[in-house]
Each structure stands twice: as structure tokens, then as C-alpha cells.
Amino acid sequence: MRRLFLSLHERLQLIIIASFVGVCGGLASVALNRSLSAVSTALQPHTGHWYGFLFPACGAALSAIFLNHVVKDIGGHGVPEVIYAISRRGGLLRLRSSVSRLVSCLLTIASGGSAGPEAPVVISGGSIGSNIASFFRLKDRHRIVIVGCGAAAAIASIFNAPVAGTIFALEAILGEWTPINLIPIAISSVVGTEVSRILQGNQIPFQNRVFPISMIDLVACLGLAGLTALGSVTLTRMLKVVRDKSNTLLPYAWVRAGLGGLLVGLIGLTFSGVLGEGYEVIRVIIEQQYSPGLLIIGLMIVAKITATSLTIGSGGSGGIFAPCLVIGSFTGLFYQRILLDLFPSVSWAGEGYFALLGMAGVISSVLQAPLTGIFLIVEITGSYQVLISVVLVSMVSATISHLFEPFSIYHQELIAQGELLRPRTDRRILSELNMVELLEEDCHVVHPEMRLKDLVATVQRTHRNYFPVEDSKTGEFLGMIHLDDIRSYLFNPYLYNTVLVEELMDREVPRVSLEDDLMKVFELFDKTHSWSLPVVQNRRFLGLISKATILDHYRKELMVQEEI
Amino acid sequence: MKNQLLHIFRNTPFGRETLLQSVYFCRETGTSLVVYIPRHPQFLMYFQNEVVTVDLDRAFLRSPKTARKHAEDIIRGGGLEPNFFEPKGFTASTLPDIPVDFSYMCCPRTISDLSTKIGLGYIGPRVRKIIKNCTFPVLIPTPVYKEWKSLTVFFGGSHNAIQALTVGMKVSKLSGFPLKIFTQAEKKHYSYYQDILKKNALYDGIEKGEIEWLFFEKGKFRENLYNVPHDTMVVVGAYGHGLIKELLFGSMMEEIQTILPNNMLIVGPNCTP
Fold first, then answer.
1. What is the pLDDT of residues A254-284, one digit of tens each?
2. Residues of A with CB below 8 A from B88's CB?
3. Of the residues A143, A269, A330, A387, which has the maximum number of CB atoms within 10 A of its CB?
């Protein structure tokens, strides 16, 4: 079967696999959705009891125990791992991740943790895609596309939003828009959505009403963009602080997650709307039926940001999409209420309208992916009427938040570690080159006790300009001789028998080792203005690494990456 | 010295024996020893087509304060310079990635299970996965340090056996130790194996008398294995089939690793000598 499949044209192969991955991604998200709904319903009668606040703690702790000790799938909350696999590991993801994160996410969210099911579904879809691609022994570049297909299908299926799924995969996950990516990802996204529609019905998650939008509403959007940017920056920073502090203070993952869950449970005693995914709260807000006043709404924003940071930052399993939507809807509502108080005579478009814009603003800023934000809101509300306002808020909000938090929540850690390498960038190409394959071993080694005449004879026999000097007894690398440094001696035969190699060699020559990063090697080339450097390991000379060879391989690698 | 052997250090008496074995291998073959002292219970190896998660036996993380010193003492005692590997890539903050471009890797028979499981006939699932995917030969040392003075390659005529013989010849050349070829004829004539060797330009050594060919046309394979010297390192090719396939159809490697207590160098199906 594999042989028959491999005989097909590459693009056809990708499309067939993308469709299959779309089905799998769709099924994964439907399974998670149904399980979440079933477990939440089962727990519902107990949440009103005094012990209800302990549920998030138990769920998060169990989730951590399950991940770390049962399936031993140590990792983050999902999406950064998928991006890392794409950026650095040819899209390879572990098979166990296709199920483990779904179960851990179920435990976290169904018990009341403030997170969304999207990130686990993305890693699940990506992992399914990666392993299917590996089964068919696809090339790395194609495997990466299939991982993107899995992520797209998952998002498309969970939100019933095929365009948003496609754009999310291209904008946030792959980071490049090429036809070879676009077609399979779009197909996978559509298939994933259809699977979800067949099994769950074609429901628009947040059906909205028609809003009377005027020019003044559009102008007011700019203020909301500032507010959503503030909210998203706060969320991003708070998540980082909670993650860093909890990792430092508490060594055990289940204790961290449990404590985070306990605090979320305590917040939930006063603000029950912060618990779980929060889609029900969004629905109420969009339908303009949320009655509490301005102060409570403001506190809800703070509470949701805190609860989300505690849940995800402490190690609970879940995604950031749903909390962003909740925070955004509350922010929009908060802003609308302020506008009403300040300008009571103006006829504003309505709470639902500003809630939608708030959602778009927060998600665009947190993900630094405005197109995803725009299309997600348009699709999950089934309304193109708000398109102009959504574009405005998303773009302005993403721009403002970029000033304070330049990178998406998914990319921060990877960028800090230097692991986010986008295709066809300098760092990516250099990362694909291996020091061993660049090593030039056809060097003529000389020894310190050799006379100049022997060195001249060696120079005559080779095309090399660099001559490593090794101790003849121990084989230890001592230094280098560069042809330029000895040119004046070469034409003076009187010195041939009197000058020794050890008098000519450069003992302070900079050296590199096989483990060195090529970026650092290039920095050393620039710093020393040299064309070749010795590679030394355990004080032994292994060969030379030269700029010319690196550039030759660099060009070949660039051509490989440009093939698609 | 361009060749590097990766050793995952277990700070226990058992780990000392395996490290001694790696040190010996490196010293004799002029290979550079790279030691990784784990700080996390898992690491990942990203091979060409699969990512292998290695869940380490807890003993690997025991006494981290003394691990480095113990390893340094053993390596220096063997006349080598310690060279410790620090992971640069991390899939998650506690999940390091170990590069897969080494020339050899030393693995005990099991890396994830407790060392009490170690015995003849058992190779753990993670080690099998590494063998199946890696492009380098895997050194499976004896539980107690034992020097080897020759190499014996098992040659049955398959592609993997040719790869194993190529590796064996390379190690023999590097170490200067004599090489023997062990063949159990399976209803085929001597000339059949001879032709394969000639076709792959591997017959010269035998012709010149530099390589001894232990060719068994009679007797059972298990019984003939007694002719393998006790102080030889066995080099064998592995198909990388799953355990069920191995049980159903049998495998030379399984028989050898069940019977022979020698050091083994296993050449996997993706190995590029």
C-alpha cells in the first residue's frame, strides 16, 4: 500500500494524507468536546457544594500526575511544542502526545480549570499528522505541512471555522504562506470541519444579532483596541510570572498544578464565570443579557486573567484561545459600559458588538496573529457585518501590544532559547548544516621541530594555506601556520635550516569544536577576519572549517529549502 | 578522533562498569568519548523518521552531586580526557534533545527499566527503538567490565550482515584487533557467501589471511556459538523488526544476544557505516 501511495505525485500524496489527517483531527476535537461536556455535566450537581472549590485543584493535580507519571509525556501546554517540532525537528512529534494531552486537558477543564481545549487538540492533531507522515516516510518539508494540517483541522473542527483553522496553521504555526502549504492545509481544515458538522451539527458557536454600526462606533473601536492590548499584555506577562515562580518555588509538577487549581477554585467561589472554558458566559454577553455592573465586569476581567495564568502557568493542561475570548468579551463589554456612562446620548452599536471586537482584539494580540483573530471572530459569530470593525481592532490591538510584548505567547520561550527558526532564514539554514560534514580533513599537519625547508616542501605539495601544528609525541594541537605569515621567509633559503616551525606558528589561533553552533563559528570568522579555523576536540586537531565550504553548503541548503 | 561515542552515565556501580567499557572502546579505537549526565528523567532523540522518547531508569539520576566526579575519575583512569555533553535543544524545559549524529552510542541492555532486569536475552524496548532508528552502531556492553581482544562479525549474507561486516572491519582497523567472521551456512554453499563478499569488495582480507572465517556447514547455530571466543566483541546486524515479528520469524541477533555474554556492537537497519 505504501509503495502504491509513494508512486503518486507528491502533491497528490499530500492532499490524500491531509484529508485523512483532517478526519483524525476532527474526530479528536469532537471526542474532546463530547468528553468535556459529559464530565462537566456529571460534576455539575457537585459544584454547588462546599467542596466544589477543590475540583479545579484535584483536576489539575490529576492532569499533572497523568502527564508526568502515567504517560510520561513531559512538555508544555502544546502549541509551542508543535512550533518547535516544525522549526527544529522536521515536524517530528511523539505519538503519545496525540492522546495524552486530550486526557490531561479533559481533567483540567472539566474540573473547572480556566483554559481552553484548543492547544491540546492542536498538539493532538499535529502529532497524528506527524506520525502518519512518518509512516509514509514523507520528507521533512512535507511532514511539516502535514503537522500544519493536523493543527488546522483541530482548530477548524473545534470552532466550526475552516478559514480560521487554515489561517491559524499558516500564520501562527508554520509562519509561511506558500501554495504547497495552503492547499493541503485548507483541505484538511475543511475535512475537519465537516467531520465535526456531521457528528455535532452545523452550529455557529456564538450566533449574534444584527448591529446598527455607525461611524462613531468605528472611531470608538480604536479605544477598545488600546484596552484589549492592555489586557493581552497583562495576561501574557502574568502567565510568564506564574510559570517562572511556580517552577522555581515548587519542584513537583502535581503540587504546582494542584496549588494553582486550588487558587482558581477560590477565585471561582466569588466569580464562578471564570471557571472552565467560559463559552457560556460569552454567549450571554453576545446576546446582551449580562446584567452585572461596570465594577463587577472589571473584576471579572482581572479574575479571568488571574485564573488563566494560575491554571496554565502552574502546569494545568489547556489552551489560551478560550480564555482570550472570555477576557476579550468582558473587555468589550466593560468598554461599552464606559462609553454609555460617558456619552449617554450617543446610540452605540450594542454590548454584543463590542464584545465581539474585544474578543478579536485580545486573541490577535496574545497570538500576534491578527488574521487568525479576524477570521475566527467572523466565523464563530457567522457575521461579516462586523468585519471592518474587527479588522480595525485586531490590527491596532496587535500593533500596540507588539510594542510591549513583541512576540506571541507561543513563540516567547522558543525565541528566548533561539529555537524559533523560520524557513529560509539565515539561522535556519545554518542550523541545518552539520560541523562534521563541513570538516576539511585533507590537511597537512606539521610538527614544531620541523625546519623551514621541510615546511616549504610541504607547502609545495599542497594547495592549502593553513598548516596545523601538532606535537609529534602526544598528537596535541599546538597552533597554526598561515601561508601569509611565512611568505617573507619562503624566499630566503638562508633561513631554511635555521628557522623551526615552532618559531613561526601562531599559538593563540582561535579554535572551534564539533559541538559549536555555526552562528558562533561565523561570529568568530568575522571577529578574527580569518577564512579557516581549526576544529579541535580533546586537544586533538580534527580538521579545518572554512568560510568557503560553509557558504557552498549554505547555498545548497538554501536551494533545497526553496524547492517548494 | 572525529568519531564520537555517546555514553549516558548512570552513577551506580553498574554504570561504572558500562562507562569503563565505553572508555576501553574509545581508547582502543581512537574514538572521542562524549558523556551525558542526565538531569531530567527523560530525553528525546530525533531520528530521521521517528522521535524516540527515552524514559530513564531512576538510577541515572541518582547522586547528581557525585556523578560528574565519578565519571571524570573513570575517564581519566582510562587515559582519556573527560568531555561532557550539555544539551542545547529542549523540546520542553525539562525535556532535553540529544543529537543523533554521533558515530557510536553505548547503551546497556535496558535504559528505561530497572537494572535488575538486565540479563541475557533481554534488550529493552527503548534500546530496540534506538537500534532500529539510529544511523550509528550501538555498543551493548557486558554488565561487568571485560576487555575484548578481537572482533567477531556474524555474517549471514544479508544486507544488514554486510553493513555489520563493514563496521567490524572499520573497528578492527581502528583498534588493530583481529577480525573473525562467523557464518552458519543455511542450506547454502560456501561459494554463495563468498560471492556476496567478493561482490561487496569485502573478501580481500580473507584471501590475504588477515581475517579468519569461521564457516559452519554442520551443527546447530546455538551449539556452534561456543566457538566464539570469550574475549571477542560481537558485531551483528539487526533488522529492527518488532518483537512479535522477531518471535514469529526468528532473528540471528535475538539468538546471539540470548546466548553470548560478550560485548556486542549492533548495527541497525538504518546504520550508515
1. 899 999 999 999 998 888 888 888 888 888 8
2. 517
3. A330
Could you tell me if A316 and A105 are in contact, meaning their C-beta atoms sit under 8 angstroms apart? no
pLDDT of residue B170: 93
Work out the average pLDDT over A212-229: 91
- Calpha distance A307→A235 (Å, rounded): 10
Nearest residue on chain B to A253, judged by CA atoms? Answer: B94
Residues of chain A with CATH 1.10.3080.10: 2-200, 215-416
Taking an 8 Å cut-off on Cβ atoms, the answer to whether B92 and A81 are in contact is: yes
Return the C-alpha cell found at A459.
Answer: 607547502
If you measure CA to CA, which chain B residue comes closest to A71? B55
pLDDT at B152 over 60: yes
Can you identify the CATH homologous superfamily of domain A427-562?
CBS-domain (3.10.580.10)
ipTM: 0.79
pLDDT at B122: 78
B51, A89 Cβ separation under 8 angstroms:
yes
- pTM for this structure? 0.84
- A93 and B51 within 8 Å at the Cβ level: the answer is yes
Please give the full DSSP string across B108-173, using - where no structure is assigned: -S-SSS-GGG--TT---HHHHHHHHH-SS-EEE--SS-----EEEEE--SSHHHHHHHHHHHHHHH
**Least confident stretch, A64-68, A201-205, B1-5:** A201-205
Distance from CA of B57 to the nearest CA of A (A): 13
Residue A435's nearest CA partner among A527, A550, A531, A528 is A550
pLDDT at A190 over 90: yes
* Alpha-carbon gap: B92 to the closest alpha carbon of chain A (Å): 5
**Residue B143: other Cβ atoms inside 10 A:** 16
B182 pLDDT tier (thresholds 50, 70, 90): very high
In this complex, the residue of B1, B44, B93 whose CB is nearest that of residue A537 is B1
SS3 A106: helix
CB B46, CB B100: distance < 8 Å? yes
Domains of chain B listed by start with CATH number: 4-138 (3.40.50), 150-267 (3.40.50.620)
Question: Which pLDDT score is estimated for B1?
Answer: 52
A305 pLDDT above the threshold of 60:
yes
Residues 6+ apart with CB under 8 A from A549: A438, A440
**Which of A537, A539, A542 should one mutate to test binding to chain B, selecting the residue with the greatest count of B CBs within 10 A?**
A537
Q: What's the CA gap between A238 and A232, in Å, rounded?
A: 10
| pLDDT of B8 higher than 90 | yes
CATH code, residues A2-200: 1.10.3080.10
Cα B161 to Cα B154: distance, rounded to the nearest angstrom: 7
Alpha carbon of A477 to those of A506, A537, B30: distances in Å?
Answer: 11, 9, 16
Residue contacts between A and B (CB atoms, under 8 Å): 67
- Percentage above 90 pLDDT, chain B: 41
Rounded mean pLDDT, A386-400: 93
pLDDT of residue A361: 95
Residue B31 gets which letter from DSSP?
P
Tell me whether residues A84 and B2 touch, CB distance under 8 A.
no
Residues in A closer than 8 angstroms to B51, CB to CB, are 89, 92-94
Average pLDDT of the residues of chain A: 87
Q: Which three cell numbers stand for residue A521?
A: 563559528
Least CB–CB distance from A72: residue in B42, B88, B92: B42
- Is domain A215-416 classified as CATH 1.10.3080.10? yes
Mutate to test the interface with B, among A79, A94, A254 (most CBs of B within 10 A): A94
